[in-house]
Amino acid sequence: MAELKINVPENFSVEEADAFRQEINGMFDGGEKQFLFDFSRCVFIDSTGLGVLVGIHKKCVKLGGTLKLKSISSQVMRVFELTRLDKVFDIQA
Fold this sequence. Notes:
The protein has three helices and six strands; from the N terminus they run ββαββαβαβ. It has helices at residues 14-29, 47-63, 74-82, and strands at residues 4-7, 11-12, 34-38, 44-45, 66-70, 90-92.
């Protein structure tokens, strides 16, 4: 099964996190488990957004799927580095 490309919101924070989580959970329910999250439009992520990503990552691992992140700006990447989540996620250029 091919990776499903998902565009991450521009401001991935508490306001968008629940809807994003529900959307991805619906995709899990539909049998998807190979994801590529495109951060090219994302300029801000908060702890809620990070928590959603961690939850999705755990579910992917449990189901034998994959989660890759790509096109992360230096500002957003700094948040991943500060939280050491850059060591957890498969981050592509």
